Amino acid sequence: MEDIIPRHIAKTPEVCGGKACVVGHRIRVMDIVVWHEMRGYSLDEIVAMFPGLSLSDAHAALAYYFDHTQEIQEEFRQDERAAKDILRRHPSKIGNELSA
After folding, report:
1. Is residue 62 within 8 Å of residue 36, measured between CB atoms?
2. pLDDT in tens, the chain (100 residues)
3. What is the DSSP letter of 9?
4. Which of 28, 46, 73, 98 has the fewest CB atoms inside 10 Å of its own CB, making it the most exposed?
5. 35 assigned to some structural domain
6. What is the distance between the alpha carbons of residues 6 and 48, in angstroms, rounded to a whole number?
């Protein structure tokens, strides 16, 4: 059986910083993981949100994730560190006033 993943998932340096994405889209594998695994959307719901995204693209993204879990988890950690760094360098001018 031919390798199906490369038909659906690619890592291109100039697209989304070289992170694994659905071919022809700027939808990262980690985005599909968040929507499906963490927010509970079905793959059918995810496909309905993005014209041009196929069910096989979504399945391939999850297959890629389960084959490369450490890589995608590291991308989540990198994004979290970047977000914390931005908040540290640019603190909210509102502060905690709204959370009271």
Report:
1. yes
2. 358 788 899 999 999 999 999 999 999 999 999 999 999 999 999 999 998 999 999 999 999 999 999 999 999 999 899 889 888 888 877 766 655 5
3. E
4. 98
5. yes
6. 23
The SS3 call for residue 22 is strand
Domain range enclosing 35 = 5-89
Whether 98 maps to a domain, the answer reads: no
Residue type, 85: D
Q: How many domains does the structure of the chain reveal? A: 1
Give this prediction's pTM: 0.82
For residues 29 and 13, the answer to whether their CB atoms sit within 8 Å is no
User: Is 12 among the domain residues?
Assistant: yes
Instruction: Tell me if 10 is assigned to some domain.
Output: yes
Instruction: Residue 78: give its domain's CATH number.
Output: 1.10.10.10
- Give the whole-angstrom CA distance, residue 28 versus residue 18: 10
22 bridge partner residues: 9
